[in-house]
Amino acid sequence: MSDNLGFGLREGGYYFAISDHVDLLALADVYALGTWRAGIVSNYIYKYRFNGNFSLNYAYNKIGESYEPGNQISRNFFLTWSHAINPNVMPGSNFSANVNVGSSKYQTNNTYDANLYLNNNYSSNISYSKTWKDQPFNFSAAPRHTQNTQTRLVQLTLPELNFSVNQVFPFQFRKDVIKPKWYEKIGASYQFSALNRLDFYDSTFNLSKLQMDDFQNGFKHSIPINASYNLLKFLI
Fold it and tell me: Is residue 65 part of a domain?
């Protein structure tokens, strides 16, 4: 029973054992004065390969009738996703996800958990990285998200990219060099990074009005070159 929502049923639902690897729980809240929420929760696991969980909730919150002062209607959602891969599945590569994103007012309107109710910050991180066997190359890509439910500021990184080449000796053509020549000691590496970012307030955001100028982006290259020599033999 709620003064604003009336009599209701919370977290009524049904559990589905879809397979040996995946399950699904469907939940719903229904209140006499018109508020309702529907959600799904799923856990999945493929032994020695990957595992994770997923949940999606949508809520229609109605307080008061249209003719009553202080009436309000809000539509909120919240999505969580966690995913991890066994390192042996993709040698040299790794993928992981930890997503928590939703409407700023979702927890305020739909939870009785004090920790969730008081949490003002959500963040998400999806990352992929790869190294090439017997090659000096490394690559990573990571979309990210942070939001503050009080200021309603949302910051998206779509994505951050990094590519690097470990130190190589471009003038060392001979194999099994014992006494390298001076130019064979010259080493070089390469680093590239790029970032694409969008900041907005979820209270004023309109996807249909989004333009490329709204994004902040840039990239950077660097090619460090170094060499080490023993100068003492020339001074003595």
Answer: yes
